[in-house]
Amino acid sequence: MKYLYIILFFLLSFIVFSSKAFSADMKEAYFAGGCFWCMEAPFEKLDGVQAAVSGYAGGEEDSPTYSDVSSGSTGHREAVRVTYDAEIISYEKLLEVFWKQIDPTDEGGQFVDRGFQYTTAIWFVEESEKGLAEKSKSDHEVNGTFGAPIVTPVLPFTTFHRAEEEHQNYYQTNKLKYKYYRSRSGRDKYLKKIWNK
Q1: Which of 35, 53, 57, 132 is catalytic?
Q2: What pLDDT, on the 0 to 100 scale, is given for residue 5?
Q3: Is 35 a catalytic residue?
Q4: Which residues, at least 6 apart from 75, have a Cβ–Cβ distance to it below 8 Å?
Q5: Vertex 132: Cα angle to 154 and 21 (nearest 5)
Q6: Quick one: which of 101, 92, 95 has its CA closest to 146?
Q7: Which pLDDT score is estimated for 184?
Q8: What is the reported pLDDT for 6?
Q9: Which residue among 5, 157, 159, 170 is least enclosed by CB atoms within 10 Å?
Q10: How many CA atoms lie within 13 A of 161 on its CB side?
């Protein structure tokens, strides 16, 4: 009987420990920064970020495809869903990283990619995120970080559809094509000009 109690004690301890281990404050954040290939890598490199998934946000169509969204006819933007542990990394840090990947003054797209589907946006899930995003945007406007008015909207989250598998982690699965695209897109040249002043 004594051994049964010991076994039960260890079993209960394991269950409690396991539930704590998996009860991390996991949240999701949504950002559009033009080509979603270029938005995955900076977020996935951050401590506390579990994953950055490429997809399509906003819009009306229930099952948008890459060709649908690329046509600019669906009202979706290419976007990333960032799953993160809020106990390790803050939403403010994600916003900081977001601004350093984009040209938020361009209302017609991002770099070589043109059209609404490539425009920038921040979607908030919680009201607190809305306040933080708007403050972050306002700070950059006041500081004149980008040298022109910021057109990136802060929007309530509606829908997100995961993109096709060939678009996930493209920077890892197609390294040469990704590097070639990125170097020719104008993104890195612009970011260097803004942030290496």
Answers
A1: 35
A2: 46
A3: yes
A4: 58, 59, 60, 61, 116
A5: 110
A6: 101
A7: 95
A8: 47
A9: 5
A10: 19
Q: 41-52 b/e with 16+ CB inside 10 Å = b? A: bbbbeeeebeeb
**Which residue ranges form the domains of the chain, and what is each CATH number?**
23-195 (3.30.1060.10)
Give pLDDT tens digits for 100-128: 999 999 999 999 999 999 999 999 999 99
> How do residues 127-156 score in pLDDT, each as one tens digit?
999 999 999 999 999 999 999 999 999 999
Closest among 45, 49, 10 to 29, alpha carbons compared: 49
Query: Where are the alpha helices (H) located in 45-174, listed in sequence order?
Result: 66-70, 91-99, 127-143, 170-173
* Sequence-distant (≥ 6) Cβ neighbours of residue 155 within 8 angstroms: 58, 121, 122, 123, 124
Average pLDDT value over all residues in the chain = 90
Q: Where are the alpha helices (DSSP H) in the chain?
A: 2-21, 37-44, 66-70, 91-99, 127-143, 170-173, 175-185, 187-195
**Residue range 3-26: mean pLDDT, rounded:** 49
Q: What is the pTM assigned to this prediction?
A: 0.86
Q: What does the block give as tokens for 110? A: 């991002």
